[in-house]
């Protein structure tokens, strides 16, 4: 689970929970297959689709994260991950 950093709680991500889609930030070096394998192994769910995009850089900080939207098979769910405090 080193690649998955934290869950994202925004208006859009909360709205996507109704469609059985979960949003989290992951390390940019992690591949989709690695993330899919980690989610299926750790949470015991079946992933049917994954979408990702790179987050924009903010000032001098490097954009090291990608945001993944993970769609689960109907009937599966994962508990919320711990939210990152800023």
For the record, what is the CATH homologous superfamily label? RRM (RNA recognition motif) domain
Q: Note the main sheet.
A: 4 strands, antiparallel
Rg is 13 Å
The spatial strand order of the largest sheet comes to: 1-2-4-3
- Provide the β-strand percentage band: 25-35%
Per CATH, what is the topology?
Alpha-Beta Plaits
What is the overall shape? Answer: globular
Question: Helix segment count?
Answer: 2
Label the structural class: alpha+beta
CATH class: Alpha Beta
The percent of residues in helical segments reads 10-25%
How confident is the prediction overall: mean pLDDT? 82
Order of helices and strands: EHEHEE
Going by CATH, the architecture would be 2-Layer Sandwich
How many discrete structural domains?
A: 1
Cα(first) to Cα(last) distance is 21 Å
DSSP E strands, number? 4
Q: Which segments are poorly predicted (pLDDT under 50) over 5 or more consecutive residues?
A: none
Pfam families: Ribosomal_L23 (PF00276)
Subcellular location: Plastid, Chloroplast
Function: Binds to 23S rRNA.
Subunit structure: Part of the 50S ribosomal subunit.
């Amino acid at each position: 689970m080193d690649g998955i950093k934290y869950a994202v709680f925004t208006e859009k991500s909360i709205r996507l929970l109704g469609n059985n889609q979960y949003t989290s930030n992951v390390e940019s070096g992690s591949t989709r297959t690695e993330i899919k394998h980690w989610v299926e192994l750790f949470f015991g769910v079946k992933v049917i689709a994954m979408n990702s995009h790179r987050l924009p850089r903010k000032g001098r900080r490097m954009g090291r994260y990608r945001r993944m939207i993970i769609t689960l098979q109907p009937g599966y769910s994962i508990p919320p991950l711990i939210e990152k405090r800023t």
